[in-house]
Structure formats: C-alpha cells, structure tokens
C-alpha cells in the first residue's frame, strides 16, 4: 500500500517563557512519535517528556517543576540513577520494527546506589508513590549488576504485577503541566489500557548537582485504515492549550517507508531514519486531531513494512518438559541481518525454587553444538543455601556473550527440578503457577526482553485444611451444645401435697359436670 501524511506529522511549539535565573536552570521538552503499521492494522504512539534542573535550584525553592517526591527519594537514599518501568504486553520486533519504548512484562526497577542497604527503603517509598507492590522486591527477586568501588547497581523484576490506572495517575501528576496542557493532555489512561502493548517509564539521574527526569509512554493499538490522532489516543475533545513550560513540543511521524511523500500543513524537515517531520503550531495540530492521519497515495514510491526493515536479533524463550517434578528452559536467538554478524550479550535469572542444573546447558548454532565454556563472559551464579530465610534466597543467574552470524539461529536449553515450597511461601493463587521473569539480550547498548514464563509447581491441596477446619468446628460445636443442654435441662421438683390437691380439684370438677348432665 502507498501512504502519505494528510495532516500534520509533527508539531513544534516553542513557548516564550519569562527570562530569569530560575528558567536558566530548568529545561523541559516533550515529544510524540507516531509509527503507522498498516500491514498489521495497528499504530504506535510514543510519548517522551524530559526535564532537566539543578538540584540547588529545586532545593532552594519551596515549590519547583521537578517532582518534590522523586527529588526527596533520590537525595534521601543517595541514588545516582533510578529507572522504573511498568509494562503490559510484549514488543513484537518482526511486526512493529525497531524498538521505541520497551521493558520486561510487569514491573522493573533498576537503581545505582552508594549503599545497597537502602534498597528496602527505596522500594517501600516508590511503592507508595506509584501504588504498586514494589516492596515485594526482596532478596529472592533482585540481583546485582555493574558493581564498582563506590556504587552498586541493583535490578529487580515483578512479572506478576499488572499495569493499571493507579500507576498511570501518579505518573501523569509528575508532568509539569500534568493533563491540563501540552502533550500530557493527550494521555487518556482508561483508553490506553485497552491496548496490545503499553509501557510507562520513569528515569531519574542525579549527576554532579543536576537532576534529569525522563518520562516515556509507549502504546500500540489497533486502528482503522482511516485512523486519526483522536481515535488512536481516545480523545473526546481537541486540547488547544499548550504547556507554557515546554521549550519545544514536537510530534513526529515515523512512516517506515522509503520515498514516501508528505504534505502540509507545516514545513517539512529532511527525513531521518525514514521519519518525516512536519512542524506547526500547537493550536493548528490540535485542531486536526479528528481528521484522518494517513490516506492512500497514488505515488509510485516503493514502500517497506516494519517486518522487512527489521535487521536485529529476535528472541523466544519457552518451557520444556512436563509433570510436577522436572522441567526445562529453551531459548532461540535469531539474527535477521542478511550480511552482518551481531554481537549479543544474554542475561537471565531463575527463581531459587527452580533448581537449575547448569551442567545440562546445551548450545547449538545452526544445528551445530557449541561448548558453552568457550564463549566469552560465560558466567553462572548459584544461590547458596541458608538455614534462615530459605524463601529469600537469591535467584540463579546465567550470562554469556556470543556473536551470531548473519541469518543464523542460536539455541539454548537446560534442565531444572521443581522444589516443594513451605506453606507460607505460596502466593494466594498458587494453582495458577509461578511467574518467571523475562530474560534479556543487549545489542549495541539496546536491551530487549523475552516473554515471561508461567511454571506450575507442586502445590498442596489448600481445600483439605479448610474441610478439616469446618468438620472439626462442626463436631466440637455439636458436642458442646449437647453437654450444655444436658447440664441445663434438669427435671423440675414439685410438692406431693399440691399434686394431690390438684388431682382432687379435677375429680370434683369432673363429678359436678356429670351431675349437671344427668339433671
């Protein structure tokens, strides 16, 4: 199909802010990138909001644009880098192209700290800020990466956590203009939750007196061929107020087509990476939100879909085996580039209750066995057993680096045993299964994630204690009732003389009645 941009493909609204000392220490920009996916009848919308300020300016002011809650957390726990991600769904690289915003399914928290003992306090405060169960990130769900002499990087994941409006609301409140103006007014939490993919991210960097806040939101939704910005984002009206604090507000359309044409309104910039950018005022762009964003074009330019432009590495992770005793993990990493080999760094964690046998690791490249020990940076971590807090043991870790040849596939497989958990370590719905965090692989500094796994474990019959409690309570209750009834229900003692008098009275009364009848 041939497509062209009918309405604006970009917005650049530069709002003149008062010039002063406070403005010179603060810079805020916002942007929106749209990527049509006509071959799968979907569209991608990627919001990004960036705020930079000096920590001295925000600490001296009673109220500043930078969220005071985040600044307090960063300074209290001496955090250099903090990244929190909520994600629902899986980014489909082959269908949706290069990644715009991604994170592991569930919740991911990564923090670089000077004192690792502050991790518990950090998760508890963030749990209150974002209304999430981040306090469940204990020693059994986190691992340490890139440790140095002065800082420690800790990463934790909760694949069971779901993204909801309670998480989106505090995220929106951290925007300088919230939902009252600018691109933040185009975010509708209830509408976005009905999507194929949704991810929000908050990253705070504290570097030499400078605080940088990056917020992003990525959503993939099904659309009609004549979709508009209003139908994609679920806008009930066209917001016309810009964010007065934003130095720039840009909306770009990534057509992913070679040689596609774009029309005004707006001035067309030179396309970069198959992206066509138009710049108009915020008011002009907001007025065109109900109009179709793309229409069929009669141009003869060649077009390519996102599936054919993907030249990276895709991954698929799955379970093997059956039963409640043993199982296994399988992995496939495929290089889709026709000519270039790609260097991949792979990392995964497994919960401690899946007893992994790393001696069973098997690697195959295009069907040929490869010795794992010959790979650079092949490293495994086995949690040590402890008599105390056995349910808080650290997870297993597997890490290696490999170079995958063009149009080649790397396969990984290993086995594990399923352990019996104590009664208190089972979640409320343990019969559903136990979630295993997604694995990740990194290519050229970009991290990709696999799908999470759901592993069934041996689960006790929780209905049996309930039945025993009900039966025991019934038997004990009936026994107590019988004893109490026996003690209280005694025979009444009466006077023999009174009994004789009552009998004589009844006899005289009966005789009088018979006499009256005979008369």
From TrEMBL:
Entry's transmembrane regions: 466-488
GO CC field: GPI-anchor transamidase complex
Q: What is this protein called?
A: GPI transamidase component PIG-T
Biological process terms in GO annotation? attachment of GPI anchor to protein
Q: Which domain of life is it from?
A: Eukaryota
Identify the Pfam families for this entry.
Answer: Gpi16
Q: Is Protein biosynthesis one of the keywords?
A: no
Coiled-coil intervals, chain numbering: none
What residue range is the signal peptide?
1-16
- Tell me which UniProt keywords the record has, alphabetically: Membrane, Signal, Transmembrane, Transmembrane helix
């Amino acid at each position: 199909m041939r497509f062209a941009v009918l309405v604006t493909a970009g917005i650049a609204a530069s709002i003149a802010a008062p010039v002063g000392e406070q403005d010179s220490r603060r810079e805020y920009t916002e942007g929106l990138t749209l990527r049509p996916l006509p071959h799968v009848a979907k569209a991608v919308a990627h919001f990004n909001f960036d705020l930079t300020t000096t920590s001295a300016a925000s600490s001296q002011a009673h109220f500043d644009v930078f969220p005071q809650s985040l600044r307090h957390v960063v300074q209290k726990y001496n955090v250099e880098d903090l990244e929190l991600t909520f994600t629902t769904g899986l980014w489909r690289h082959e269908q949706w192209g290069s990644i715009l915003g991604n994170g592991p399914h569930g919740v991911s928290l990564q923090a670089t700290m000077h004192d690792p003992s502050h991790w518990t306090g950090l998760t508890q405060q963030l749990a209150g800020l974002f209304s999430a169960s981040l306090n469940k990130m204990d020693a059994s769900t986190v691992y340490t990466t890139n440790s140095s002499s002065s800082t420690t990087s800790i990463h934790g994941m909760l694949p069971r956590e779901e993204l909801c409006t309670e998480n989106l609301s505090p995220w929106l409140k951290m925007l300088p203009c919230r939902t009252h103006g600018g691109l933040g007014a185009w975010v509708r939490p209830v509408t976005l939750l009905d999507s194929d993919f949704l991810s929000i991210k908050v990253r705070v960097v504290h570097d030499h007196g400078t605080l940088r806040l990056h917020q992003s939101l990525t959503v993939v939704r099904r659309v009609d061929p004549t979709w508009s910005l209003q139908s994609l984002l679920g806008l009930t009206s066209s917001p016309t107020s810009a964010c007065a604090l934003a130095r720039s507000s840009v909306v770009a359309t990534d057509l992913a087509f070679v040689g596609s044409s774009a029309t005004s309104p707006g001035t067309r910039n030179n396309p970069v990476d198959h992206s066509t950018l138009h710049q108009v005022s915020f008011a002009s762009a907001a007025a065109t939100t109900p109009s179709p964003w793309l229409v069929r074009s009669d141009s003869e330019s060649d077009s390519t879909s996102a599936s054919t432009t993907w030249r990276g590495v895709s991954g698929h992770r799955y379970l093997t085996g059956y039963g409640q005793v043993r199982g296994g993990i399988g992995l496939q990493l495929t290089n889709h580039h026709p000519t270039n080999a790609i260097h991949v760094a792979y990392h995964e964690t497994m919960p401690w209750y899946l007893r992994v046998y790393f001696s069973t690791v098997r690697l195959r490249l295009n069907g040929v066995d490869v010795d794992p020990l010959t790979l650079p940076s092949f490293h495994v971590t086995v949690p040590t057993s402890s008599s105390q807090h056995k349910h808080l043991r650290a997870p297993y870790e597997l890490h290696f680096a490999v170079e995958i040849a063009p149009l080649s596939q790397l396969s990984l497989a290993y086995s594990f045993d399923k352990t019996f958990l104590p009664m208190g370590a089972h979640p409320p719905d343990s019969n559903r299964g136990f979630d295993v965090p997604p694995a990740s692989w990194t290519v050229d500094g970009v991290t990709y994630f696999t799908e999470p796994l759901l592993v069934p474990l041996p689960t006790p019959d929780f209905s049996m204690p309930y039945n025993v409690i009900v039966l025991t309570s019934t038997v004990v209750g009936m026994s107590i009732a019988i004893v109490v009834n026996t003690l209280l229900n005694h025979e009444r003692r009466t006077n023999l003389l009174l009994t004789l008098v009552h009998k004589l009275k009844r006899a005289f009364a009966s005789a009088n009645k018979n006499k009256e009848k005979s008369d």
